[in-house]
Amino acid sequence: MTQPDAQIVTRFAPSPTGYLHIGGARTALFNWLFARGRGGRFLLRIEDTDRERSTPEATEAILRGLTWLGLDWDGEVVSQFDRRDRHAEVAREMLARGHAYKCFATQEEIEAFREAARAEGRSTLFQSPWRDADPATHPDGPHVIRLKAPREGATVVEDAVQGTVTFRNDQLDDMVCLRSDGTPTYMLAVVVDDHDMGVTHVIRGDDHLNNAARQTQVYHAMGWTVPVWAHIPLIHGPDGKKLSKRHGAVGLEEYQAMGYPAAGMRNYLARLGWAHGDAEFFTDAEAKAWFDLEGIGRAPARLDFKKLENLCGQHIAATPDAQLLPEIEAFLVAAGKPPLSQAQKDGLSRALYCLRERSKTFPELVEKAHFVLSSRPLDLDERAQAALDTVSRGILHELTPHLQNASWTREELEAVVAAAAGAHGLGLGKIAAPLRAALAGRTVTPSVFDMMLVIGRDETIARLTDAAG
């Protein structure tokens, strides 16, 4: 499984115990960008050793979230639980090498040790009496396998983001690698999996920084090459506190349901804690080419919904229609909205050119598309009803026959409407509101001329006739 030394290999290794957190999504993105920008491999491993909390539904949610975000992975998804025999094999190999030992201490004995240590003001790190015991003295019965960690000196983690981080070995205990029931611990499984999968760079949240010290000791015990560590700061809310549900959406799938385009999310998440000069808006190709570990800051990033919306608006404007329409349809499904009919898809496709500008999210775009997604008789909102007073209805009635004979170009439509308004001593802006109301049932819409061009002559005249009464 190990890849050639020259190839960059990264991984994303979530636990399937719930939704995919936006912080996890950013970690996946950083790993994806780092590998893809260097011709490397990006692997996906589901760390499902916690059988009580891991669920297939959570795994599916993770896969859906990554797929929506546009992050593809290489090879099959690896289940950590399925590799438990390999993890146990490594624990026994460390035992044979003298880098691990069997510990027969019971939970009661461990707690008694800690209570005595607290009473005497000593460190409560458990020091097993079995560490250097003669195997001939080993009893029959349940035992764990512990790493025989160095007790003097320090374990140094050279981190590409955090710099050199030193851990005193007398502050690290002999961690359990294999439980008494023969199942591996997470700390061992992670190292074995990363080694076997050929992972060269471990890019993950800085809440794992302490784990890196213990995991480094396992690498050393097995004589394996330690990967490049890169522990990235967590994401905080706008108030500077750890991101939680009180700040709004924290699950990635919520962002799809809220109508943020995937390209905008990728752009925003890439900028959340990483920078390339002053660049704010960039494409995937640019992100892959630019992304590096040196550009990751050490301070926690703050979620800013205004910046997210601004970037998403730019991406909606820049996305070709053929890509935008399927993503809008997927948003409607995610948001629990009715699917579009073929006629609505056709109409929306014709209208996208005048909907994308200044739409920061898909709900905004769909609201502006109301005129082409609705059919007669239109449901007029309160402002639209107010705009269609007696005078306005009269003007619309007069305008209709002129439109019957107009060539259906923007220039002539503007001329015909301007003439109708001028006949009543009105500017074009004064007649725009009742026209919007008649054509869309709303007063906040695209240009009235864009709407006329999109829905066509017959539908335009029919709607004006309805409104004129």
Automatic annotation (TrEMBL):
Cell compartments where the protein resides: Cytoplasm
PROSITE patterns named among the record's database cross-references: AA_TRNA_LIGASE_I
Domain Glutamyl/glutaminyl-tRNA synthetase class Ib catalytic: residue ranges: 7-309
Record Pfam families: Anticodon_2, tRNA-synt_1c
Keywords noted in UniProt: Aminoacyl-tRNA synthetase, ATP-binding, Cytoplasm, Ligase, Nucleotide-binding, Protein biosynthesis
GO molecular function annotation: glutamate-tRNA ligase activity
Residue ranges annotated as motif 'HIGH' region: 14-24
InterPro entries: aa-tRNA-synth_I_cd-bd (IPR045462), aa-tRNA-synth_I_codon-bd_sub2 (IPR020751), aa-tRNA-synth_I_CS (IPR001412), aa_tRNA-synth_I_cd-bd_sf (IPR008925), Glu-tRNA-ligase_bac/mito (IPR004527), Glu/Gln-tRNA-synth (IPR000924), Glu/Gln-tRNA-synth_Ib_cat-dom (IPR020058), GluQ/Sye (IPR049940)
Binding site for ATP: K245
EC supergroup of this enzyme: ligase
Catalyzed reactions per annotation: tRNA(Glu) + L-glutamate + ATP = L-glutamyl-tRNA(Glu) + AMP + diphosphate
EC number: 6.1.1.17
Family of the protein in this entry: Belongs to the class-I aminoacyl-tRNA synthetase family. Glutamate--tRNA ligase type 1 subfamily.
Assembly with partners or alone: Monomer.
HAMAP family given in the database record: Glu_tRNA_synth_type1
Function text: Catalyzes the attachment of glutamate to tRNA(Glu) in a two-step reaction: glutamate is first activated by ATP to form Glu-AMP and then transferred to the acceptor end of tRNA(Glu).
UniProt protein name: Glutamate--tRNA ligase
